Amino acid sequence: MAAPAVTSQAPSEPLVRVAPGSASDQPEPQEARSTAVGAIKRQRSGPGQVKTMPRAYETCDPKELGVLISNMLMELIRLNDQIPLRDGRLTRFHSRAPPGISVSDYLQRLIQHATLSPPILLSMVYYIDRLCQLYSAFTINSLTVHRFLITAATVAAKGLSDSFWTNPTYARIGGIPVSELATLELEFLQKVQWKIVPKPETLVDYYNSLVDRTEGYELEPSEGDSDSSEISPDGSDVRSEDAQGRMEL
């Protein structure tokens, strides 16, 4: 299946899982079981390199939000792909090998063809934490991420939208059989205990975290920050130093 062109810069993709090495004195890597892993404050890019995102997640460009989510997913994948698979840790979300389409291209495909809105996309991020919390065998890695994404998109669309596509349509977009999507959907719902509608403030927190952790992105100034002018002695309106140095796209 052909992936749509993506204009935003996406992170590089791992092609294969890292095979377990020989015995070593090094401590075994820890699984990344939360989207908060690696969520450090990124260094601000230079002038002209910062992309400003709206404060209201509902109004952001879904494709730009997809870039933020792809970056977060890649951080989890790079950590979890270092951990060898063990017996009893395979789930229905595991594929035999990493699919040929990159995570970023796959997510952009879902966004475009399944018309995923920002609330649906942020709910999919919320599902990562909920599923990892309630299903100890599951982590996001290069073998699980694609099946997780199409399943989460299907569940979120049905749970949050008044209108949504049929399972055959989601399966075609995601590149899996309809029967497999139905199995994954039921497995997913059972593991998250059928609780699939996050609180609005939860989505706000996830959105702010995604913007904050991604280099080259920032939230637009709040209304209080935008009123940063002062009156000079000659009566003219002069912007503060902070406002002069801020770039908005």
TrEMBL record:
Question: What is any Pfam family matched here?
Answer: Cyclin
Higher taxonomy = Eukaryota, Fungi, Dikarya, Ascomycota, Pezizomycotina
Residues crossing the lipid bilayer are none
- InterPro entries the UniProt entry points to: Cyclin-like_sf (IPR036915), Cyclin_PHO80-like (IPR013922)
Can you name the source organism?
Answer: Peltaster fructicola
Q: Name one GO molecular function term.
A: cyclin-dependent protein serine/threonine kinase regulator activity
The identity of this protein, by name, is Cyclin
Biased segments, Polar residues type: 1-11
Kindly state one GO CC term assigned in the UniProt record: nucleus
